[in-house]
């Protein structure tokens, strides 16, 4: 696809800001607190001050009303340059449910939050409800006009930074389990909410969220009571594409560093890049990333054309291929950089650890393969 002049100007503004925030590796390490953070509020504020966030969100709700292609450019460029802005991708995903199903207050609140660079969380997964989300057991019971929520969510990205939690609750357990699920917008600082970091192989991203008799007003319901399952079935294409776009940038970052290493690292009297066995593997990676990029932007363009609800199959492919390409690129890079890939000081092992997560979140890749297989009629 060809970018429009507006999209090119936007990408250039994002690139310029990325370059000023992360002019070198020392600056990147400072912003990420030595790779212990995937999101920097300082970076998010810098993007917000330049009006670079929430560009796809509807004008009627306070957004810029432009394209999803531009969101993908932001996700790609920040991942490519290592600018820690990852909570924005979660917030953008959460925003889709509020925008599709929320009332005017939900929509305005969420758009304002994103435009200011605040984090937002999606609180769906539970200890006993992972891939099988319809078995969620966190309850919300009516008490007058209010809802009172009790339960536990787990693996919740950036809940520790978020303004609100979009909580999947069970409001009725008498019928079919896919019915009786309801989405609620919960302030992250509401009494009864406890957020606890979960240690992982990557930087701090995920949390346990404990909800102990958390009271919210009736207006906190996003969409229809009992309709969350059908609501969540829509908007998934955007969520998966967001992951795909981040993976384009993250894969390119690993590739760029790998190329820089093998062209300067001399062994047997020549740069490693002169070994055909090395160069051809890198050529394969570059080809995969280029094809991935084209596919991701093609899907993004179709979202902008209003075809989102028909893109379930393609969006799953974008998430699947993006996350597998990111993992493969970093794994290959570690191997081809030898000890310099394996050692923590040089950064590639950290990228490899980061690359494991997107194959799991946003629907494990095995689940994406099921969707693709079903789309093929298998
Ligand atoms: C880094 C990270 C961030 C996350 N962020 C969020 C968040 O912000 N909000 C949120 O609600 N959740 C979040 N999650 C949770 C994530 O969505 C779940 O981990 C994921 O859906 C898988 O659920 P599970 O971990 O319970 O694994 P399980 O459901 O127990 O599955 C384990 C494995 O079994 C296989 N499997 C599962 N189902 C199938 C199937 N149908 N067919 C074939 N194989 C299958 C897959 O290999 C899968 O990885 C996050 C997880 C991680 C790791």
TrEMBL record:
Keywords for this protein: FAD, Flavoprotein, Oxidoreductase
Molecular functions per Gene Ontology: acyl-CoA dehydrogenase activity; flavin adenine dinucleotide binding
Cofactor(s) of this protein: FAD
Domain Acyl-CoA dehydrogenase/oxidase N-terminal residue range list: 4-114
Signal peptide: none
Domain Acyl-CoA oxidase/dehydrogenase middle: 122-206
Domain Acyl-CoA dehydrogenase/oxidase C-terminal: 229-376
Cross-referenced SUPFAM superfamilies: Acyl-CoA dehydrogenase C-terminal domain-like, Acyl-CoA dehydrogenase NM domain-like
Family from the record: Belongs to the acyl-CoA dehydrogenase family.
Protein name: Alkylation response protein AidB-like acyl-CoA dehydrogenase
Natural source organism: Frondihabitans australicus
Taxonomic lineage from the root: Bacteria, Bacillati, Actinomycetota, Actinomycetes, Micrococcales
């Amino acid at each position: 696809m060809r970018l429009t002049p507006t999209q090119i100007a936007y990408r250039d503004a994002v690139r310029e800001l990325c370059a000023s925030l992360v002019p070198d590796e020392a600056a990147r390490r400072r912003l990420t607190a030595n790779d212990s953070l995937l999101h920097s509020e300082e970076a998010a504020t810098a993007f917000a001050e330049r009006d670079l966030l929430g560009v796809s969100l509807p004008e009627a709700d306070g957004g810029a009303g432009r394209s999803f292609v531009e969101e993908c450019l932001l996700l790609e460029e920040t991942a490519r340059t290592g600018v820690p802005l990852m909570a924005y991708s979660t917030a953008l995903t959460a925003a889709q449910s509020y925008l599709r199903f929320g009332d005017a207050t939900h929509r305005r609140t969420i758009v304002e939050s994103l435009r200011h660079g605040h984090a937002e969380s999606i609180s769906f997964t539970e200890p006993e409800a992972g891939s099988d989300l319809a078995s969620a057991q966190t309850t919300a019971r009516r008490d007058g006009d209010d809802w009172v929520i009790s339960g536990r969510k787990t693996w919740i990205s950036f809940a520790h930074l978020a303004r609100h939690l979009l909580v999947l609750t069970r409001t009725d357990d008498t019928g079919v389990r896919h019915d009786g699920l309801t989405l609620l917008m919960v302030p992250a600082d509401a009494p009864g909410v406890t957020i606890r970091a979960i240690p992982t192989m990557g930087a701090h991203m995920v949390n346990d969220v404990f909800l102990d008799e958390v009271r919210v007003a009736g207006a906190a319901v996003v969409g229809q009571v009992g309709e969350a399952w059908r609501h969540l079935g829509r908007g998934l294409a955007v969520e998966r594409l967001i992951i795909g776009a981040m993976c384009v940038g993250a894969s390119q970052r690993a590739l760029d560093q790998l190329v820089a290493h093998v062209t300067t690292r001399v062994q047997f009297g020549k740069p490693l890049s002169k070994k055909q066995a090395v160069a051809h593997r890198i050529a394969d990676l570059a080809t995969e990333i280029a094809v991935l990029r084209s596919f991701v932007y093609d899907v993004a363009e179709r979202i902008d054309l209003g075809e989102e609800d028909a893109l379930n199959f393609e969006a799953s492919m974008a998430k699947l291929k993006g996350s597998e390409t990111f993992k493969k690129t970093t794994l290959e890079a570690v191997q081809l950089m030898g000890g310099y890939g394996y050692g923590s000081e040089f950064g590639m092992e950290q990228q490899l650890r980061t690359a494991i997560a997107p194959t799991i979140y946003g629907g494990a890749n095995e689940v994406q393969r099921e969707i693709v297989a079903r789309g093929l009629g298998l």
